[in-house]
Amino acid sequence: MCGIVGYVGNESALDVILSGLKRLEYRGYDSSGVALVNGNMFIEKRVGKISNLEDHLAGKNLGGFHVGIGHTRWATHGVPSDINAHPHTGCHERIAIVHNGIIENYAAIKKMLIDKGHIFSSETDSEVIAHLIEYYIENNSFLDAVLKALAKLEGTYGILAISESEPDTIIAARKGSPLLLGIADDAMILASDASAIIEYTRKVVYLEDGEIIEVKKDKMKTFDLERRRIDKKVEDITWDISDIEKQGFEHFMLKEIFEQPETIQNAYRGRIVIDEGLVRLDGITLSRQDINDVRRVILIACGTSFHAALVGEYLIEEFARIPVEVEYASEFRYRRPILLRGDLIVVISQSGETADTLAALREARDRGANVVGITNVVGSTIARECNAGGVYLHAGPEIGVASTKAFTSQIVVLYLLGIFLARRKGMTADEAGALLRELTKIPDKVQWILDRADAVKEVAELYKDTANCLYLGRGINFPVALEGALKLKEISYVHAEGYPAAEMKHGPIALIDENMPAVFAAPFWDEVYAKVVHNMQEVKARSGKIICIATEGDQEILKHADHVLRIPNIGKMLSPLLSVIPLQLLSYYVAVLRGCNVDQPRNLAKSVTVE
Q1: Whole-angstrom Cα distance, residue 284 to residue 344?
Q2: Structural domains for the chain
Q3: Rounded to an integer, what distance in angstroms lies between the CA atom of residue 602 and that of residue 584?
Q4: Which of 2, 302, 386, 469 is flagged as catalytic?
Q5: Is 232 a catalytic residue?
Q6: Which residues in 480-591 belong to E strands, given as ranges?
Q7: Known catalytic membership, residue 2
Q8: Which of 158, 243, 306, 401 lies 20 to 30 A from 342 at CA?
Q9: Out of 175, 405, 545, 606, which one is annotated catalytic?
Q10: Over the stretch 309-368, which tens digit does the pLDDT of each residue have?
């Protein structure tokens, strides 16, 4: 989950690395560091934000270094500290590495190296990599020393390494943690995310698992772990640097919430033909027979993507009448899942690099299942490894750690997937066309909600000091309750739980008092509206305060709720795309009023690339 950057070229390596690290700070922000080499090694690393590192580098004359690596950390092994920050070195500080991932057998390697006289200074698993390379470089070239070290490692890694012995070279390797190479004029830039290099080039090479690349300023050579040469394809990044700027918004999260009218439209743009009731998902490579044979859909995801999958369960079952199961990716492969002929596996991940989801993908694929991916990042590992293709969200880079626009885009794609399958299971063109026509109304309706964001802010001001909050919904809005609770937890550190509204009386009602607000999603056209109102009455009877997401024009709700946040009227199956927007805004405004770091909440990172 850490961010890594490397540069070799003619410019100041430090300037490029620091610029890249700032772009990647959303991937890890408890410490950072750089290592520069020009025959001698210079290393500086500091706990805290990258600004702390910059302060310690200020005034140092480092423009003569044209090769270097940098890192911004999200701690796994060892507390955030100067010593545990990357880069790490061997005993003699002639080798430096940065690492993203987890080395599972580091303890055994560390013991072996200590027995051979190596002295370790950090608590991290990563330090063993530098010592291993140092150990092997005595009798090998830099590249061969890295290869020998990699052969000893078990776990996941994205690694950059530099050495005083070859000061014009960076060696990078990947296994389970993303890495790409940007090719600029007279320079090469390595990074864990394209956002670190887009300022300098759009030409990229994506490393695959089990590949190692030797990089100089004007050339690169790629090998497998047996040292066999590999030819790599150069690809283009399609988005622009403006997509990763705040563009006048105070936070990336707020910008991304307000982008949703556009990103929702981007998720269906070019994929629907309303008059013919057609959905075109050309990235899915299943044959017509494979699609006709689908008997069950299994949606696999983590976190916010899991909540989108829960919405997808309602959508696909309603439209296609195919049974759907939703699985946490982290649990899927550890319970010996039963996969049957006719199962379609759909893995969902904003980043396309989520380690648990990727592991579930490989488990299902290796057992012969057809696996389709839904992801936002072009060229990501999940996008490349799904054997039945996939669908991109086209939401643009999402920088805020708490996902917002990706969630709604995922729901749109699942809505399209449900209709796509349903047309092959008997849904008529007229039925599909009516559903698609309703979808095209969503961007304007989302904008209507955003235009009234101040009403949400007023409610946030009243509840910013609450310690606990309950989120309740029924049917397709139950996942929205889960997502609303998650957002509040993630960025404001307020304890919140989401439940199906009917489950409140089976335990959670014991928590209700005058200090415990309850947030309801209660669109009035829902067939269980009366039952949700009854749940509200149960809360009111226990002195609880109620915040309700309700449809414009619903006057009945005013009798039961203390605060009503309005959404436009829309059909039930599309309602999550509207009801979640006020909840995103509510969590954002509460966090801001509490003084929290909205874009970089404590203990979290954007792309969870470790299990």
Answers
A1: 12
A2: 3-237 (3.60.20.10), 273-440 (3.40.50.10490), 449-597 (3.40.50.10490)
A3: 18
A4: 2
A5: no
A6: 495-500, 518-521, 546-551, 563-567
A7: yes
A8: 306
A9: 606
A10: 999 999 999 999 999 999 999 999 888 889 999 999 999 999 998 889 999 999 999 999
